[in-house]
Design goal:
With about 170 residues, this protein is mainly α. The protein has 5 helices and no strands.
Length: about 170
């Protein structure tokens, strides 16, 4: 029975590698975002002298949105891989991000909700700049969804703080 248990535990431990394609897929998705980003940047560069101030701001906010999403994917890809699959062997490379190897599951949740709130805020700002394109009901939904994200983020943070307190930290 002990041999069976050891074999089972060996396979359960190795099954973590089934997650690797998910994290690699997230990193590949950054390349798709990069293509979209370059396309938007090119359109902005071509229209910089002809765009209205509002359209210019919305174009810039779209670029910010893309950068936030790409950063979020990178953080999830790196930290998820390191937390659930294997440590990334960069040693003490000078370009190693300071957060790498230190972002736990709890930190990842907070970073995720923080990025979602930031993305939601950018989308809300775009809607407010183009306020004439939306009904009050549509704007109310956008504000309500954003507030829901903000409250969720605060509740995540409070929950983590309470959990840390019970752990004796």
């Amino acid at each position: 029975m002990n041999n069976l248990e050891a074999t089972l535990e060996h396979w359960v431990f190795r099954s973590r590698w089934l997650l690797a394609p998910f994290f690699i897929g997230l990193l590949l998705a950054i390349m798709a975002l990069l293509v979209k980003f370059v396309k938007q940047l090119w359109a902005l560069a071509l229209g910089v002298f002809t765009l209205s101030s509002d359209d210019l701001i919305i174009s810039i906010l779209a670029l910010i949105d893309g950068a936030l999403i790409a950063s979020l994917l990178l953080i999830i890809g790196f930290s998820g891989y390191e937390n659930f699959v294997s440590k990334i062997g960069t040693g003490q490379h000078e370009d190693r991000p300071a957060w790498m190897g230190r972002v736990g599951f709890s930190d990842l949740k907070i970073k995720l909700i923080g990025a979602i709130v930031a993305i939601s805020a950018v989308e809300l700002l775009k809607a407010f700049i183009n306020v004439d394109d939306f009904t009050w009901q549509q704007l109310s939904w956008k504000v309500g969804i954003h507030v829901t994200f903000v409250v969720s983020g605060v509740l995540f943070a409070v929950t983590d703080r309470i959990t840390e307190g019970k752990g004796g930290h």
